[in-house]
Amino acid sequence: MSAAIIDGKAFAEGLRGRVADLVPDFVATAGRQPGLTVVLVGEDPASSVYVRSKGKATEAAGMKSDTIILPADTSEDDLLNLVRKLNADATVDGILVQLPLPRQINENAVIATIDPNKDVDGFHPVNAGRLATGLHGFVPCTPLGCLMLLKDRLGDLSGKDAVVIGRSNIVGKPMAQLLLGESCTVTIAHSKTKDLPAVVRRADIVIAAVGRPEMIKADWIKPGAAVIDVGINRIDAGERKTKLVGDVAFDEVSQVAGAITPVPGGVGPMTIAVLLRNTLVAAHRNEGVPLAKDAI
Ligand code: NDP
């Protein structure tokens, strides 16, 4: 059997288009563009690339994009004061502080200082609590993107056995909450899980968010299962070249699974598309402009 490929790139383009289509109505009602401010501390090359792509995508959707780049030796107090200033700025709907932060800054303190209603990354404990208790809030972009891809492929997820491998606050835990919200029977696996292959073999839906190249093998997968690969790992491809691979051994798993996301081109493009979606939602909420529940 050969799995259907879940084309995250195409889905993300569609989502970005739907967001862009809704921006003019917001501008007409609110008299301003939705605004996203991204803060980068230091010059980590990977983070700089992400921040640039976020800025470009925000502008392409017709929204206002601001990028604030601070020196690597910025103090925690200075960053917290900047976040407070952005919280108070009515033209800023979404605030994203690019992680990781330099050592002298406590990430949790920064996340906790962002106004939960501008926390388009969905990392604030208030938003984590809202997700856990089934209230409206902001959901982290990557897991929400995974859920969108799954629902698009499988429709109703109710009653399905889902195994999430990884329990980070950014991916694994919110992913598990989202699947529980869809009435899946959810297992969260991690580095202490016993007999991981046997646990994964029970799953109709596998979410791999581990950060270990091609760890998940074909004989771990129930035939026909949907496999979502969140992992992004750069490995040596010989001849001084590198390539990106996921946490799933794609070539072999795609022979067993019913559907699978590739790396690249699967979950990756969804993250920025959902960030734009969250920013548009934040703008509507902040201005009290209604947005149809299923509009995006
Ligand atoms: P973390 O390192 O924060 O978490 C990894 C999780 O995997 C931990 O819960 C850890 O368990 C678990 N784990 C590690 N080794 C094993 C193992 N051998 N068996 C079972 N579980 C294991 O990573 P993130 O959640 O931030 O990211 C996961 C992957 O997703 C990375 O490759 C990252 O690059 C990618 N990513 C991709 C994004 C995208 O846009 N597509 C966005 C965010 C992340 P324990 O808790 O016990 O240590």
Indicate the proportion of strand residues.
15-25%
What is the fold-level CATH name, i.e. the topology of the largest domain? Rossmann fold
By CATH's scheme, which homologous superfamily of the largest domain applies?
NAD(P)-binding Rossmann-like Domain
Q: Count helical runs.
A: 10
Helix/sheet category = alpha/beta
State the order of secondary-structure elements, H for helix, E for strand: EHEHEHEHHHEHEHEEEEHEH
What's the total number of strands?
11
CATH architecture descriptor name of the largest domain? 3-Layer(aba) Sandwich
| Spatial order of the strands forming the largest sheet | 1-11-8-7-5-6
Q: What count of structural domains?
A: 2
Could you tell me which ligands this complex binds, including any ions or cofactors? NADPH dihydro-nicotinamide-adenine-dinucleotide phosphate
Residue share in helix: 40-55%
N- to C-terminal distance: 33 Å
Instruction: Tell me the radius of gyration.
Output: 19 Å
- Global morphology: globular
Low-confidence stretches: none
Main beta sheet: strand number and arrangement?
6 strands, parallel
Mean pLDDT comes to: 97
CATH top-level class of the largest domain:
Alpha Beta
List the keywords:
single chain; 296 residues; alpha/beta; Rossmann fold; 2 domains; six-stranded parallel beta sheet; 10 helices; binds NADPH dihydro-nicotinamide-adenine-dinucleotide phosphate
